[in-house]
Amino acid sequence: MSETAVLAVLSRLESGQGRIELRLEQLGAGQAKLEARLAAVEAGQGKLEARLAAVEAGQAKLEARLAAVESSQTSLRIDIMGRMDRLENSLTDIRSDIVVNISAVNHIRTMHDNTREEVRLIGDHVARMFMQIKGIQTRLREINGEP
Fold first, then answer.
1. Using alpha carbons only, what angle is made at residue 62 by residues 58 and 64, rounded to the nearest 5 degrees?
2. Geometric angle at alpha carbon 55, from 51 and 59, rounded to 5°
3. CA torsion 116→117→120→121, rounded to 10°?
């Protein structure tokens, strides 16, 4: 090969090498940008992980509070049921007292009615006895000759 041909090839090689070096520089710059973006993404991921941890901590607190509320609700339900049972027992006792008092009143009313009937019967007996006594007095007067 002639020297011009070699120089032409060499010139082409040098020009290709320049383009390759330029391309390598561009790739290096692109890689630097990608690395910067990767660092930003990793920082964002760190922030997201921190936020996720905060959300999970908040969720744990809420679950603890929910458990406390459920426990309180169960305790309240037990207390209310106990109170209702006591009120029901008190009401049953009051009803029993009312039934006993009504029975006593009915018994006294019956005794009163019976006493009234007995007084009426005694009055009838007294009236008959009075009539008999009058009859006996009349006979005694007749026997004694009194007017």
1. 115
2. 170
3. -140
Handedness of CA 61, 64, 70, 72 (dihedral sign): negative
CA-CA distance, 118 to 124, in Å (whole number)? 10
Highest mean pLDDT among 19-23, 58-62, 138-142 belongs to 58-62
Q: Compute φ and ψ for 146, nearest 5 degrees.
A: -90, 150
Rounded CA separation 93/101 (Å): 12
Token look-up 């007995």 returns: 118
Listed in sequence order, the residues at least 6 apart from 141 whose beta carbon sits closer than 8 Å to its beta carbon are 147
Q: Spell out the domain ranges in the chain.
A: 1-106
pLDDT in tens, 62-108: 999 999 999 999 999 999 999 999 999 999 999 998 999 898 899 99
Q: Is the pTM of this model over 0.85?
A: no
